[in-house]
Amino acid sequence: MFIRNIDKRIKILFLLMIILLILVIIKICYIELFEYSKLNNLAQDLWSRNLELKADRGKILDRNGKVLADNLTTTSLILVPNQIKNKKQVTTDLSKILNVSYSNMKKHVYKKTSIERVHPEGRRLSYETAKRINKLKHSGVYLIKESKRNYPYDNLLAHTIGYVGIDNQGLSGIELQYDKYLTGEDGAIKYYSDAHGNKLTINDTYVSPISGMNITLTIDINIQKSLEREMNNIRDMFNPDMALAIVVNPKNGEILGMSSLPSYNPNNYQKYDSRILSRNLPIWASYEPGSTFKIVTMSSAIEENVVDIFKDHFYDSGKVKVDGSTLKCWKAGGHGDQTYLQVIENSCNPGFVKLGQLLGKERLFSYINKFGFGTKTGIDLNGEGEGIIFPLNRVGNVELATSAFGQGISVTPIQQVMAVSAVVNGGYLYKPYIVKNISDNTNTIIYENNKVLKRRVISSKTSSTMRYALESVVAKGGGKSAYIEGYRIGGKTGTAQKVENGKYLSNNYIMSFMSIVPANDPDAVFYLAIDNPKHTAMLSSYTTTPIARRILLDIIKVLNIPEQSKEITKDLEWNDKVTYEVPNVIEKNYEEAKKLLINFEIIKNGTGNIVSYQSPKAGTKVEDRSRIRLFMK
Hints:
Penicillin-binding protein 2a (Domain 2), 7-stranded mixed β-sheet
């Protein structure tokens, strides 16, 4: 009986062992089939180490493919302390090469970590330094590839592009706004070591880094170079507190150029004050616009049919009283009787006070809001300002009057440019943008910006009238210094007195000029502002308009704007140079040629009576009384 019970127990135990063995086999099969990858990764984590390979940031390019932000390949120092055999020698050698103290380098070499990045002394090493380290052949000392951001045009478009930190992270501008697109995926060299850090004989694994995506801007580098050149001229001539310029395509809201002064070099951003680095003036600065804002008031008045600018008249005595406040015209004694077209040509403040009164505060401020003032434009850059517009319940007669000619309110340059774009493009207010598209490493476009219409503000008829009025300002009014013969240029000057602690400063102005080209069908709206220019008369004819003219000539060239013969003829002043187009007198007799060349001085060569050749050639524009040489046969 006892033996029988033992046999039974043995059989049960044997059965349990068989069941346990089956369970173990099932578990092993499960691990091999379903858990192998996970456990293998966990195991490799225990004895694998990664030497990180930093990915290149994506490039930033202008609309023509010119690279504005690129990468330079550099080398960085990585240590694996457990692999270093002679720590004292390594510490001595590296401290000499990197020009750091022995104690400082010792902290890295003797550190109890699997991988130690020598920061910052070992980052972005020069070629010569990396070569010297490589010659040491010390175990545990590695040199790995690292990229450094490079801006080949230095200050060009600095505030808009922005800059990156030591670890290639975007800190400002496009670099910050689109950091997640520009940042690539880091790679690594994976090697294997035991618990003591000794390298195993298993082959290293190379994981290639993937570069970030490329961003193409709407900026045209040739227009941008023109802006930067003139910013430097403004700095040298006028030593202003600040200056800014912006060029936009009014037909879709693309930013073609944008510049600020003071500027900085993003390759060495650490040398500059944070206030310079953070302020992209064309979108951040907020100030009283002055007379450039009269474009908005005049457009509103025309749209509401309160005046016919060609027929209706206004008499300017030089000043107007509003609720006890005297608002003066810049011209002592006033302009007398004038049409409202002449009111904008002459930039007559009392005339615009009258327009504001005719509109009333509800209608005027309704248009101010429709044109986008008081709210952000939504441009795809960080740091945009909003400006300050009077709430309607705080608008009295004086506030209505001053707002009508651009005083007492605060606006940003980008708001002004987009509002004027709406004035001249048929009445359409667009959202501005500066990123054209984003593409991957195969040049496949993954995102593309398109124009965004916010609303229509005025009619095409009003827009057409305003284009004529602005062209007339350049031909006959305060913008004559920006006149370009053969091209239709429109514009409006502005002189805004600055406010500090609630009081207007004396002899401290923001001089500005808003322009369009060509005036009949604008391809570009251009705004220039100079804050507190020194060593010059406070007149746009001496400051903004001559500089604007040079930039407009560049814009005309870059955009291939054809010459036109129907521009409004400029009213000449005593110091203006008169030019004439040389007529064709070849094959005409000398008497006929003399009649055609009445405005020129003729130099006759030869004894014949028929003109065989002339210099300059027919069609050339030269100044009055220029010499024309005729060759006779």
